[in-house]
Amino acid sequence: xxxxxxxxxxxxxxxxxxxxxxxxxxxxxxxxxxxxxxxxxxxxxxxxxxxxxxxxxxxxxxxxxxxxxxxxxxxxxxxxxxxxxxxxxxxxxxxxxxxxxxxxxxxxxxxxxxxxxxxxxxxxxxxxxxxxxxxxxxxxxxxxxxxxxxxxxxxxxxxxxxxxxxxxxxxxxxxxxxxxxxxxxxxxxxxxxxxxxxxxxxxxxxxxxxxxxxxxxxxxxxxxxxxxxxxxxxxxxxxxxxxxxxxxxxxxxxxxxxxxxxxxxxxxxxxxxxxxxxxxxxxxxxxxxxxxxxxxxxxxxxxxxxxxxxxxxxxxxxxxxxxxxxxxxxxxxxxxxxxx
Length: 340
Ligand code: RBF
Description:
Helices cover 43% and strands 20% of the residues. By secondary structure, it is of the alpha/beta class. The chain has a 6-stranded parallel beta sheet, with helices on both faces. Strands 7-6-8-9-10-12 form a 6-stranded mixed beta sheet, with helices on both faces. It is elongated, with a radius of gyration of 22 Å. The N and C termini lie far apart (57 Å). Bound molecules: riboflavin. Residues 28-319 form the ABC transporter substrate-binding protein PnrA-like domain. Residues 1-21 form the signal peptide. Keywords: Cell membrane, Lipoprotein, Membrane, Palmitate, Signal, Transport.
């Protein structure tokens, strides 16, 4: 073989190896945590990052790098592709309902790249594993509490108008098909008279816009608001404190953010799931190509009833009725399946 042929062969081999993800020199797996948004202001992303980092630190089997894609959704596919193309990461882990399709569209170009996506659903793609939460149960619990509160004038911040609202950052399939219908389903189960208003801020970070919408909802008679608008949620809390209405919090526990005004917290245990899935990955136990759904019975959807502010913020009657419904879901006596 002449020198030029040898050089060419060397370059080809070097390229192939550099574009395959390899274990780092310390033998640890390299994990990129792809944040489709910003960590600050979005508990779902903070919990994802914390769970992965905790698993890496505890086992010393992995190194996590947090990669924030920012709020411009049009830039996400290019940023995700760049992460995969870098060949630096054994695993890209993320959490967002729009991510499974995005990973699918680039996965054939990077067959050696593994993806784990939480809070999303996709089955049958070789290098992608997904875990979806049963958010029908999560939004049902938020709605059940909102329905009870809106029915009663005895509650501290309710005028008993039978009127609740959900403020979302944007419309997306999970919002329109699971979260909003689940919230209404729960509210109507608790209070058949209830009416629900749906508003969209158009941003995952605009607290001013969210506050403005919340205040106008309050003026129109709404007694309870569920905000699902990322950093905008802070604006809903400010409006609640200014006007005096109840907020039902979503994803993590929010009581301490506005004591007395946050009446309940319907939890998605993303920190726990991210931790457990990362441990499984580091131990080689993830079945790629599969998807599963976890809910209240499995302990990944829940409600924070341990914070004393929950019991203190609502009437005894509401507390008792709500706990009965929560325990039915926890025990598996009652389930609300999600369909994909
Ligand atoms: N939730 C957040 O808390 N912050 C975000 O920046 C955010 N961005 C999202 C972008 C898209 C395209 C979609 C579909 C959802 C987003 N979510 C965000 C919502 C999140 O995935 C989840 O539905 C809600 O947190 C309710 O659990």
